[in-house]
Inverse folding.
């Protein structure tokens, strides 16, 4: 759908060196977008470097740790100096999920770290990118959430901090959506499905290519009426 809408758009992807983030970069660049690929360690981002070698004109790799304000601001400053300095789309994709978390071994510091990356950082990235987004004709902030953040779907234990962080991200998405609606900004939470990545594991239902292809269709079709919603990769509403 609407490749013409994506072509020429300016997109920031966080966590761009592997998994879904890498695939977002690949597919947006393929569709003609200008992609700012944020990752913590550009020197160690082999797959991303290979992608850039083929699409040097469309992809710029930027060092970005989403938990560090100076790192976010350096990225925002760089994008402001590129082209017309606008940004059409923020894909808050970077995320983390601790392994083996159970009731008996919960640890406050590690739980806080997960909340910081998955819930707080996306909102701070959005806040710092606001001055770029205001120059877009179609500004959107897409927070990659998870069905595991759904209170309605929580029918099992474990995954404490990951599930809580995504539930918090959903709430923060709604709050920001209401605040930014008067400026025409669309803010949504989007569940990618269960995907074969380091986080999703090898037995997941979808490849990253399939998931991102579907999410791009949803993102392309976003209208102000969608803002503040929790969506699935087929565009339907996910229960909170
Ligand atoms: N895979 C699934 O089944 C699934 C399902 C639902 C939701 N999601 C969500 O989808 C998003 C992408 O997940 P994925 O499956 O692609 O996971 P992944 O392969 O584990 O990739 C996670 C990415 O996040 C980055 N990251 C972590 N902490 C960061 C930080 N402080 N600053 C910058 N980047 C950071 C990682 O960078 P490093 O390489 O530097 O660690 C990596 O690029 C996440 O938000 C995840 O919660 C995934």
């Amino acid at each position: 759908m609407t490749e013409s809408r994506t072509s020429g758009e300016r997109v920031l992807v966080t966590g761009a060196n592997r998994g879904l983030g890498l695939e977002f970069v690949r597919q947006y660049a393929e569709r003609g977008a200008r992609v700012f690929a944020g990752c913590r360690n550009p020197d160690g981002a082999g797959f991303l470097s290979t992608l850039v070698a083929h699409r040097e004109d469309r992809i710029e790799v930027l060092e970005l740790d989403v938990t560090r304000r100076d790192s976010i601001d350096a990225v925002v400053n760089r994008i402001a100096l590129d082209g017309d300095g606008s940004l059409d789309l923020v894909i808050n994709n970077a995320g983390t999920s601790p392994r083996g978390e159970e009731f008996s071994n919960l640890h406050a510091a590690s739980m806080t770290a997960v909340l910081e990356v998955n819930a707080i950082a996306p909102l701070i990235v959005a806040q710092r990118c606001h001055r770029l987004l205001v120059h877009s004709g179609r500004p959107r902030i897409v927070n990659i959430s998870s069905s595991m953040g759904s209170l309605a779907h929580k029918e099992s234990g474990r995954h404490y901090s990951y599930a809580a962080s995504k539930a918090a991200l959903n709430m923060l998405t709604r709050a920001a959506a209401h605040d930014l609606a008067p400026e025409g900004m669309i803010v949504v939470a989007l569940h990618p499905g269960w995907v074969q990545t380091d986080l999703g594991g090898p037995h997941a239902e979808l490849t990253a290519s399939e998931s991102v292809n579907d999410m791009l269709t949803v993102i392309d079709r976003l209208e102000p009426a969608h803002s503040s919603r929790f969506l699935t990769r087929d565009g339907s509403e996910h229960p909170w």
Observations:
- The mean pLDDT is 96.
